[in-house]
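#lab-general

N.A. 3:47 PM
ok so I finally got the sequence cleaned up, no stray characters, all 476 residues accounted for. can someone with queue access submit it? mine expired

B.Y. 3:52 PM
send it over

N.A. 3:53 PM
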Amino acid sequence: MTKDHKDAPMLIAGAWRSSKNQHPIVDPYRGDTVGASAQATLSDLEDAIAAARKGADAMAAMPGHERQNRLQKVAGRLAAEKSEIAKLLSRESGKAVRDSQGEIDRAVDTFSLSAGEAIRIEGRHVPLDGSAMGAGRYAFLLRFPVGVVAAITPFNAPVNLTAHKVAPALAAGNAIVLKPPPQTPLAIQRMIEIVQEVGFPEGALNVVHGGAEIGKALVAHPGVDFITFTGSTQAGTAIKAGSGLKRVALELGGNGVTIVHSDADITAAATACARNSMRLAGQSCISVQTVLVERSRFDAFVAILLDKVKELKLGDPLDPATDVGTLIDEAAAKRVESWVDDARKNGAKVLTGGVRHGAAHEPTVLVDVKPQMEVVCNEVFGPVVSILPYDDLSEVVDFTNRSRFGLQCGIFTASNQTTFDLVRKLKTGGIIVNGTSTWRTDQLAYGGVRDSGMGREGPRYAIEDMTDQRLVVFNL
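B.Y. 4:20 PM
back already:
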């Protein structure tokens, strides 16, 4: 299936479409070109949305069991091609191939879970006899597809996060216009080909490649009914501002707070934090970025985490022994390097790492950081973890809730009382008990608060967003 060079054309009304303007896809580790994507014009976008409007009618008429069957076929085909798709993903993204294989496994789950939800879309009976006016009447809330879904996906987990847009949209009976990430469209391209091959109606899935201009026009277009986006807080803010009255689901950034209380299993906590701060080269919105450790356990925790981080292998993403590959490109690595250098100049201590190699950055552990440093208060999106001590849990609550982010946090403790105290007080979209902020499985209601976004992903929850409720009242 995979060739040395793979193109990613547009897909409009069931036909592949090329372009004179080709965007090269560069392997961030080797520096060679591995493919190219066909850049859309505004005219191409108009065609894609027009095709989706027609495709939406065909999708709405398709019975749930047929949508289920096709989505399950996609899952099976992805599973069968996992090795080749993962290799392609590692080439274009610099992601360690073990992580790429895990991502394809999760995309399989996402399509399979969406297939199951396609036959479980249900409304409810609304009792009216609670008032004299309603007595004797019957009311029902039914769910129908919204129509056309616009989806914009990121580079850090491109296959699975695209699956989280495409599979629920199709399961709900919608058509979709997808804008893949400019940096990593190639593995997505193979998934799109598989969706086409299993036989969805013409126009059910349309794909346009491009930058900010195409994205801005897509979300503002009156032919779009719902927008789903995963990416930076800055871009999400612009999408919300430009979307008019359309509903949006925004899964945005985070700063990965994990709390280690005095009664925690320090070895388990440090081991998990070491791996989950560095996997995907830290390019995950729930990557462990800041660890708050009760002061009496601080030194022991740091010692164990440091040993575990030093064991991680930085290297060729295609080497199965590699733990940490590159960042998405050299510019991203330079930004991480500058943030670490700035922290060091302002008093932070680098215990390990802190060195960039082209598009790669060594796994880095910082202590003596201050809350106002970029590496703490903003999203690093790189292989960097900062460790801070605390004396009282009220400090933890204040630190977490003062952040502009609120995606997920982790808590390590043996105390149910401590757990429920924090669950009540921490204002985040998710709390992982005896685990890090990084944990996610694909059926969860996943999302954040504040600058981390709005709405929830996960097939069941995305389908709720991608369907409209319609009230039906019977006067009998």
